[in-house]
Design brief:
It contains ten helices and five strands; from the N terminus they run βααββαβααβααααα. It folds into two domains: 5-69, 2-Layer Sandwich (Ribosomal protein L11, N-terminal domain), CATH 3.30.1550; 74-194, Ribosomal protein L11/L12, C-terminal domain (Arc Repressor Mutant, subunit A). It has helices at 22-26, 33-43, 74-82, 101-111, 120-134, 143-152, 156-160, 168-202, 206-215, 219-230; strands at 5-12, 51-59, 64-69, 97-99, 136-138.
């Protein structure tokens, strides 16, 4: 390719379209945008449900292009490992999901050089920080607790071994933790709905408030109002 222009996009894996941002950015380049979108979707088909960074290098003179697919953000990979679509909107109050330390090691190895740290233990700690913002628990505990444990060396043997697979017992424990999180989320959502309903029921309507205000007026004031109406 000759002189190229590079366009950076964030797309849904396997679900890019010719609409914004791709279509408008590449229009007027003499390229088949539909084919570009098709190629992007083929290259990102294994990353469905995740935000994926994509570079499209365009040689407008030759009407050629190249597509480079980057790795999804760490948060997207963590959510995929946890089997959830989004993090908690109220991290620290409502959990979103739960992971094991092996999942964090796996994501750290996947992200590799794109992370700030090069040491695996420090990379895992970076991901624990992401878990905090997502409202994700690790090993059935708050991510902040696990950060303390990592600093104490609790998971050093697994990190040094770069362990990414769960034993049958660990998998069973993780499934139990996921079920516990699901029940906790349901309980919190039910409590929030009940509190909202109670608040709505306790709030007087405008008409009721006006009537209450009218009843509260002194008798003399009401008489004066009636006289004024007759006039």
């Amino acid at each position: 390719m000759g002189k190229t222009d590079t366009f950076n996009f964030m797309v849904q894996g396997g679900a890019a379209t010719a609409g914004p941002p791709i279509g408008p950015a590449l229009s007027g380049k003499g390229l088949n945008i539909g084919q570009i979108v098709k190629d992007i979707n083929e290259k990102t088909s294994g990353l469905k449900g995740m935000d994926v960074p994509v570079k499209v290098k365009v040689d407008a003179a030759a009407k050629k292009y190249e597509i480079e697919v980057g790795l999804p953000p760490a948060a997207a990979l963590l959510k995929k490992e946890a089997g959830i679509e989004k993090g908690s909107g109220t991290a620290g109050t409502k959990p979103a999901g739960v992971l094991r330390i092996e999942h964090l090691i796996k994501v750290a190895k996947t992200k590799g050089d794109s992370m700030l740290s090069v040491d695996l233990k420090k990379q895992v700690k970076e991901l624990v920080g992401t878990c905090v913002s997502l409202g994700m628990r690790v090993e059935g505990k708050s991510a902040k607790e696990v950060m303390i444990e990592i600093n104490k060396g609790t998971y050093d043997s697994k990190i040094k071994a770069a362990k990414t697979d769960l034993t049958a017992e660990e998998l069973k424990q993780w499934e139990s933790e996921k079920q516990g999180i699901k029940l906790e989320i349901e309980r919190l959502e039910k409590a929030a709905a009940q509190a909202a309903a109670a608040a709505q029921a306790a709030a007087p309507t405008e008409g009721a408030a006006a009537a209450a205000a009218g009843e509260a007026k002194p008798a003399e004031a009401k008489k004066e109002e009636k006289k004024a109406e007759k006039k």
